[in-house]
Specification:
Length: about 180
């Protein structure tokens, strides 16, 4: 009996022969099913993360009621003073050479307060790439400084030999890089 023809069991349910795995793989783009599911899972995770980030950005969060402008809720400062490349430590890189650990400091321009809460941003990049002055870390640091916070965007040692993400697996080197970044 051909694979696409069904037969009937005694209770009237149609039974089909098993379809070979190779045929299933061809039906989903010629890739093994596991790779297809992994890509779908990564896409779903990325979309969920994007939705979470949008919800956390101050302009996307509903403002509490009350007369304004209020420090830490509203933009009460029009300018930001950025002090870049302040060294906060040093540590060995993959070649066992000392590297300076640096941060960028964002403060509200003209602020006279001496005690302010701080927000610390750590850039992404899978412990192989990225920089404190690029992407969301820099944008959000400036935004929070206009609200009255002190914002700090840091660099950490890039210790992983290959990108650390679900697509490439999470080898021990990635876990070690994460632990060392926390120590930085």
């Amino acid at each position: 009996m051909p694979a696409d023809e069904g037969r009937r069991r005694g209770d009237g349910v149609s039974i089909r022969q098993a379809v070979p795995l190779k045929r299933i793989q061809t039906c989903i783009g010629g890739r093994p099913r596991q790779a297809w599911l992994l890509r779908a899972s990564l896409l779903a995770g990325a979309l969920a993360l994007a939705a979470l980030l949008v919800a956390c950005i101050p302009s996307a969060v509903e403002r509490p009621a009350g007369a304004g402008p209020l420090r830490y809720r509203d933009e009460v400062f029009s300018g930001v003073t950025v002090t870049g490349d302040l060294q906060y430590g040093s540590a060995a890189n993959l070649a066992n050479e000392a590297v300076a650990l640096r941060l960028d400091l964002y403060e509200p321009a003209g602020d006279t307060a001496t005690k302010r809460p701080a927000v610390i941003w750590v850039h992404g990049g899978g412990y192989t790439e990225g920089d404190k002055s690029l992407g969301p870390a820099a944008i959000l640091s400036a935004r929070f400084a206009k609200l009255g916070y002190v914002a700090v965007s840091i660099n950490y040692r890039l210790l992983a030999p290959a990108r650390c993400d679900a697509a490439s697996g999470i080898p021990a080197e990635c876990l070690n890089a994460a632990v060392e970044a926390v120590r930085d």
